[in-house]
Amino acid sequence: MVSLNESNNAIWLLAQDETGFRFVLSSYMHLHGKKMVAPVVIAVLFVIYYAGLSVVLALISGIPGLVKGLFIFVPLALAGVMIGVTVSRIKEIRSGEEDDLSQY
Length: 104
Known about the structure:
- 54% of the residues lie in helices and 21% in strands.
- It is α+β, with helices and mostly antiparallel strands.
- Strands 1-2-3 form a three-stranded antiparallel sheet, with no helix packed on it.
- α1 runs antiparallel to α2.
- The longest helix has 30 residues, at 65-94.
- It is elongated.
């Protein structure tokens, strides 16, 4: 006998053998975990890119201080925006909202 139990946003697949012993066939699986992988990976890649770009642009010699400050600030600001967008997307995924079109 095999049964599927859903509780606390988790799926447990339980089986029972001929002696009546119940055991877990599959481990804990979060319902929304797979949907969060892509946004997090993309965000990490963008943050690494923007931070690296900021460092490379800051190391260029012969540029006035104000311009160099902008070269550091703008990519880091974009990295911060990317983190904020990713956090809001993770909240949307956890609440069960599949796309943003339903808000409009």
